[in-house]
Write a structure and sequence with these properties.
The chain has a single domain, classed as Rossmann fold, CATH 3.40.50. Helix content is about 40%, strand content about 25%. Keywords: Cytoplasm, Methyltransferase, rRNA processing, S-adenosyl-L-methionine, Transferase.
């Protein structure tokens, strides 16, 4: 199955309808990842089909739950899920943050190549990053520990804002170890098209 068919089938399974230009940009973005991966080792996933399933569609599973106009993607790596969200929602202002220069260089080039006026990428340690305005939501699929995610990004989240943690299996222990100032708002089980045996959850946290 080619990448376009895989993407279109996945979108249909997710119930997400994107215009043709957004679908083209997503496929162009997947091609950019594959191209840069040969030199820069952006991601361990190199197979074209797996890039569509495990990167693009995985990022798109959270799209219906991003109900804000500004978001920061922390530890974005190659821009996941941030760049995917920026493509799917041109009205969403997306800021991606990573400590690895080559990954930020890639994201900035992707912004140019894909014409993403709603994307800004920052090369900085997140705990040192001072955004001009705090965010209604921050998201990450990079953090192995949610308590660390909250601690390092607390200064970036607006008082009424929330955290979106993309996780695999339901993280019982991590939730139990959250600081008292933060509580679980919602845990959403996600279904990843093309990977029926893969567990995915979106954990929504807010201030207590």
């Amino acid at each position: 199955m080619n990448a376009e068919t895989l993407l279109n089938q996945g979108l249909a399974e997710l119930g997400i309808d994107l215009p043709a230009d957004a679908r083209t940009k997503l496929l162009d973005y997947a091609a950019l990842i594959a191209k840069w991966n040969k030199v820069y080792n952006l991601t361990a996933i190199r197979n074209a089909d797996e890039i569509v399933t495990l990167h693009l569609l995985d990022s798109l599973t959270v799209l219906p739950h991003v109900e804000v106009d500004r978001i920061a993607d922390i530890g974005a790596g190659a821009g996941l899920p941030g760049i995917v969200l920026a493509i799917a929602r041109p009205d969403l202002q997306v800021h991606t943050v990573d400590t690895v220069q080559k990954k930020v260089t890639f994201m900035r080039q992707a912004k140019i190549d894909l014409g993403l006026k709603n994307l800004e990428s920052h090369h900085v340690r997140v705990e040192h990053w001072q955004a001009e305005t705090r965010f209604p939501a921050v998201i990450s699929r990079a953090f192995s520990d949610m308590a660390d995610f909250v601690r390092l990004t607390e200064h970036l989240v607006a008082d009424s804002g929330h955290w979106l943690a993309m996780k695999g299996v339901y993280p019982h222990e991590e939730i139990a170890q959250l600081p008292p100032a933060v509580r679980l708002r919602e845990a959403i089980a996600l279904r990843l098209p093309g990977a029926a045996d893969t567990h995915r959850h979106l954990i929504v946290l807010e201030r207590s």
